[in-house]
Amino acid sequence: MHATDQFLPLVVKDVTYEVNGAKLIKSLNLEITSSGSTIILGHNGSGKSLLLKLLHGVIAPSSGLVTWNNNIPTTNQYWRTFLLQTPTFFKQTVQYNIEFVLSIAGIPASEHKTRCQQALEICGLGEIRHRNTHSLSGGELQKLSLARAWVLKPRVVLLDEPTVALDPPSVIGFEQIIHQFKQSETKVIMTTHDLAQAKRLADEVVFIDAGKVIEQSQAGEFFSGPESNQAQIFISGELV
Amino acid sequence: MHDDNQGILATAFQLIFTLEPELVEIVLLSLKVSITAVILATLISIPLGTLLGAYRFRGRDFITGIVNALMGLPPVVVGLALYLLLSRTGPLGDLQLLFTSSAMIIAQCILITPIISSLTQQTIEDLFNQHALQFKALGAPTSLTLLPLLRDARTSLFTAILAGFGRASAEVGAVLIVGGNINHLTRVMTTTIALETSKGNLELAMALGIILLIISFTITSLMIVVRKTQSI
Fold this sequence. Notes:
The structure holds 2 protein chains of 2 kinds. By secondary structure, chain A is of the alpha/beta class. Chain A has 8 helices and 9 strands. Chain A folds into 2 domains: 1-76 and 156-162 and 174-240, P-loop containing nucleotide triphosphate hydrolases (Rossmann fold), CATH 3.40.50.300; 80-153, no CATH class. In chain A, helix 2 (94-104) packs parallel to helix 4 (138-150). The longest helix of chain A has 16 residues, at 168-183. Chain B contains 10 helices and no strands. Chain B is an all-alpha fold. Chain B has one domain (3-231): MetI-like fold. The A-B interface holds A 56, 58, 74-78, 81-84, 87-88, 90-92, 96, 100-101, 103-105, 148 and B 130-131, 133-134, 136-141, 144, 148-149, 151-152.
């Protein structure tokens, strides 16, 4: 049995999300059952980030239902973490920011040191653990965001275009940590519009466009020949 | 400069450099009153401003409106209201605080609490809004975010407290009414300047004015240093 199986399937049933009468997510249906990584692809404004927020419970659907193994998500379920595209941190040390997450998750203080040490090492932040976050680079901040997730030992990690502002070496470093998550049987659900990255990381692809799921398939199938016209245009690199 | 004015200025500096006892007594009492008022106001304002900045609750806008309105309170009106409360026939007359330094502390505290509260609220609200989505994504209860937010905001809060001290030390109207400007008891820098100027004793008034200006410049300089520290 895979460690994430108890939290799956993830079911999104007829979900609509409206802001001021504008339907940004339209009767979206999706079922994720596999424990491998799921990459949500789509162009800018397709609704990827909103979908992730709905999956984590950061926002509630205007109608429809999101469930993880029949349970409605709330943000204080720490088996699941969500990395924002632009995470924010306290202007304090790297270590403080990681330990803060342990405190809010109610992890006993006796475990803080060991867990923090592990997260710092996995994410390559050991040497800068005492540095203030305001002196970190974009890549280091994203690694800190990952460390903040890792320290909770989540079974599912949701990532919203985490590498969008990073240079290629930082992206590679970041993806290595994502692989560590996968190896530790953590399900990765990540949005991106970077096709090369999607190919490197995806086991399964969900392609969304205009707030609707257009296609869901195994990564190999998707990249060798997507079924939908929109996905074909997207992976051929044309602007939609 | 006119010879008379030069003479006044020279005497004023002489009073300062020789640490003339009356001048020292007035300066020390002024500092004691203002510092005590600032400490009390800070103890009220930081929790109040934090509460208003970080939480959304029914009546919050109303309380915020009142706090903001009180920032512009006319000092003499505060002095008059406090005089009526503390006078022998007033509801708090039994406390016998009128014409004491305690009454002056209360008056200054009333005047600067809205200033520090409002600045604290704005600082915490801005910071909280910056982190709002992150806190939600992390499932962080607001109560657990307050201490780290206050730590992040410490330089801005210190600036707010300095602004309060500047306002308190420059106050004249309210402290004159509730303190009575009694020699050796409630005579502070601002009230002494008013009194001595009206009597034509300009040397002491000038010396106290110079000290007030030094305090004001020191506070302004401290604010600049604190802001620079924050932006590094």
